[in-house]
Amino acid sequence: MQPNSSFSPVERLRRLRETRLGSFVPVLLALAAIWLYFGIALPIWEFWGDQDATSIRFIFLSPRNIYNLFMQSAVIATLAVGITVVLLLGEIDLSAAATAGVCAALLGVLVLAGIPGWAACLIVMAVGIVMGAAQGLLIAYVGIPSFVVTLAGLLGYQGLMQKILPTGNLNIGDPFVRAIARILVPDIWGLLLATLLVVAIAALALRRQAERKLRGLELDTATTLWGQVAFFAIIVFAAVLTMNAYRSVPLLIVLLTGVTAIVGWVTTSTPFGRSIFAVGGNAESARRVGMNVKRIRVAAFGIVGLLAAIGGIFGASRYGSVSYTAFAGGSLLLESIGAAVIGGTSLFGGRGSVWNAILGALVIGSLGNGLDLSGASAADKLMFSGAILLLAVAIDALSRPAGNGQR
């Protein structure tokens, strides 16, 4: 074997991405660079350039702005988690944002008709599953490429949303729906939930280690194992303490974390989740070992539909209304796909994590938030977002082993 010093930069990148923590490195570096620039470098530059300034205004890193950043990124993150599931299969869903819009619009109509908010939420989640699974059936059993099916779904669902909302906007006054984004968890409960989440992650890590030992696979070192847990704990507690410093942890963020944890558990610790990775890695091999590839694809698209519906509920609660522009007519779809890809999920399938999608959503949200605070134009935001997305896809392509780029 060649010594490490002889590896090319591309080969080192590939080896880094194959490690457990390696997939987090690019997105964390991007997030750190954005936060350092907008949070520290730009305020200092503005201070030195302003003769009348008496102090440095660290607005971006203030607890209030971090709180708002998490809330602004919640809908993007929810859709990105769902999109990650189909990306793991090597597929794509271009209709996720439109599905969220239809479900949000339906939610508004249902509560306006007098249906209790909790019942309306359950109905739209069921509708979201059906919308996603219907596309999955066309992809899996008819053989139409996912790009074509979901592009048709994007156009069709956009039209459906316009039919449901002829005026393009509908206010939601239901107390249950509005409470999702307005209820704040007491500080002590936020810390307790953070502790429980870290304990759960540690338990899952130990369980995975035990399963690998039972199968005779290579085990992680104690440093790697507990380093992952410590790394996750630092992020979780830093987020909770920062939000507590301003107001408290919103129920919306707790629900988003819970949904992500469930999807993360399903994709990494269940036979169904392992089959998703197997199909994404090599669908033909998965079929030969007895996996029902078609059903797996339908189920995956059903999950995207469910997550899109939940994202629609979150958005309707946060905005207090449903509008065509906020969901189907804006940049939500591209930002959600960008968050999943920037988070490190491979466009070629077989590699990725829903937790990476959350970090990717924070990158997208942080970039937009920082540019807004600095007075940048909408054109600047689009160009910067495009550059980061292109860089993320380039890293993904370079880090794949030779010959695996084609499906």
TrEMBL record:
InterPro entries: ABC_transp_permease. It comes from the Bacteria. The keyword Membrane applies. Signal peptide: none annotated. The chain crosses the membrane at residues 24-45, 66-90, 96-126, 138-160, 180-204, 225-243, 249-267, 296-316, 322-342, 354-371. It is a multi-pass membrane protein. It is found in: Cell membrane. PANTHER family: ABC TRANSPORTER PERMEASE PROTEIN YPHD-RELATED-RELATED (PTHR32196), XYLOSE TRANSPORT SYSTEM PERMEASE PROTEIN XYLH (PTHR32196:SF32). Part of the binding-protein-dependent transport system for D-xylose. Probably responsible for the translocation of the substrate across the membrane. This is Xylose transport system permease protein XylH. It comes from Roseibium porphyridii.
